[in-house]
Design a protein that fits this description.
- The protein is mainly α.
- It folds into two domains: 61 residues, no CATH class; 324 residues, Rossmann fold.
- The protein contains 16 helices and seven strands.
- A hairpin with a 7-residue loop joins strand 1 and strand 2.
- Helix 10 crosses helix 14 and helix 12 packs across helix 13.
Length: 419
């Protein structure tokens, strides 16, 4: 269904018309004293009888954003201090791309690892941040590379008003994806003849505390900084969830990615194009296995901590959707999807091609997947204008490419926006 057909189906005006309507509404509110914003400097009344006002310059708190055309003004300030806890196999590479794009566009600083992750799977320590020295009071705008979360150390690097986010995925689909992706890295997966064999008797292949075996059990719990081998206790699990809720402002769900992007955009006060993304690090050569209800239950029991975590934040997620408004959510998801389709048609060839696998990028960090899957690589259209090519190149740029392009000194001047 085309963009125009979707608008007609949802009884919506086009984006340009909705932006214009929002602009005119805000002008009316400012001139009539209805808006809480001060009008001084925004508009001046004209002495001429032919026109009622002269347009001045909008203050940033009214926030007229320009992305090719004006968006409707929103009475909020975009958040620029963001910490994203990047979990494994949860569409986090896709989110990382939009964070890098936003940071580059606004000349923000990133806390970067000395390699390609913050000494993972060890707990995060501020010493693993490239160029960081706590005694000079240095802070960064963005942090998003892989780590095992350690709140006090993260807070020593990030400003006090940082907005903390992370993302979860249903443990059943996460386990299936992890088995294929990390098959030769996690010993428990490596020694298992098949995923079905592992499900039937995981203790036959799993040795607690063996390096990288956290990828085979309660991986989300581990990344969030807790003991993934602990026996399930409702009281302890509730305590952990409460601690996470105190730290993180928003937990996204990979299973409801577009709804998550709508809520994230609203929470951060960002523009539509800031949260439009293409899929990154997605597999192309295999479909998820169809598991029986009994096998799914086995995986939930095996990953009991992750299952409780997911259920808890799935509940709070849909409570947020309810407060946001279901009808409003449906409309904004449709707009998001239409814009994504528009950019895909502009930027990409119809089918992504598997990448040429690089064995490593130095410093012992494996760049490629270590399992049975082949990951999709987007290919740009060849007839793009210079400006469109710059935009599209940023949208398909992978995590490691962005990390390599960042200035070595994040206290120094940044890459200019779209230079």
């Amino acid at each position: 269904m085309s963009y125009e057909e979707r608008l007609k189906e949802l009884s919506l005006y086009s984006l340009s018309k909705r932006r214009l309507r929002g602009d005119l509404t805000e002008v009316f509110k400012i001139m009539k004293g209805i808006s809480p914003e001060e009008r001084d400097g925004d508009f001046k009344m004209s002495s001429s009888r032919t026109r009622g006002l002269h347009k001045g310059t909008f203050h940033t708190n009214i926030r007229m954003r320009k992305l090719g055309s004006w968006h409707s003004p929103r009475l909020c300030t975009p958040k620029t201090n963001v910490m994203f806890l990047k979990t494994h196999k949860t569409a986090s590479c896709t989110i990382l791309n939009l964070l890098y794009r936003f940071g580059e566009k606004h000349n923000l600083t990133f806390a970067l690892p000395k390699g390609y992750h913050f000494d993972y799977p060890n707990f995060f320590n501020s010493r693993s941040v490239k160029g960081f020295w706590w005694q000079n009071g240095q802070h960064y705008n963005m942090m998003s590379s892989h780590m095992r979360f350690n709140r006090p150390e993260v807070q020593s690097v990030m400003p006090a008003d940082t907005f903390y986010i992370s993302i979860l995925r249903h443990p059943v689909s996460l386990a299936e994806s992890s088995f294929n992706y990390f098959h030769f890295l996690a010993p428990a997966f490596k020694h298992s003849p098949s995923f079905e064999d592992f499900i039937a008797n995981p203790w036959k292949y799993y040795i607690p505390y063996l390096r990288f075996n956290h990828l085979a059990r309660n991986m989300l719990w581990f990344d969030l900084g807790f003991d993934h081998n602990a026996e399930f206790s409702l009281q302890s699990a509730q305590s952990v969830v409460a601690e996470i809720q105190q730290t993180f402002h928003f937990i996204l769900l990979a299973d409801y990615f577009d709804q998550s992007m709508v809520l994230l955009r609203d929470a951060l006060c960002w523009s539509l194009d800031d949260v439009v993304t293409f899929r990154h690090n997605a597999r192309t050569n295999a479909k998820p296995k169809c598991l029986s209800p009994a096998q799914e239950e086995q995986l939930k029991k095996w990953n009991a901590l992750d299952w409780y975590l997911y259920q808890s934040f799935n509940k709070t997620f849909w409570e947020k959707v309810e407060r946001f408004g279901k009808r409003r959510m449906d409309k904004e998801v449709a707009i998001l999807q239409a814009r994504r389709e528009e950019l895909q048609n502009l930027c990409l060839l119809k089918e992504g091609k598997p990448p040429k696998v690089k064995q490593s990028l130095g410093q012992g960090v494996q760049r490629c997947q270590t399992g049975y899957v082949t990951m999709m690589k987007h290919t740009l259209n060849s007839n793009l204008s210079i400006s469109d090519k710059e935009l599209c190149s940023r949208m398909i740029r992978e995590e490691y490419e962005y990390t390599d392009l960042m200035p070595p000194c994040q206290g120094c001047p940044q890459l200019g926006p779209y230079q």
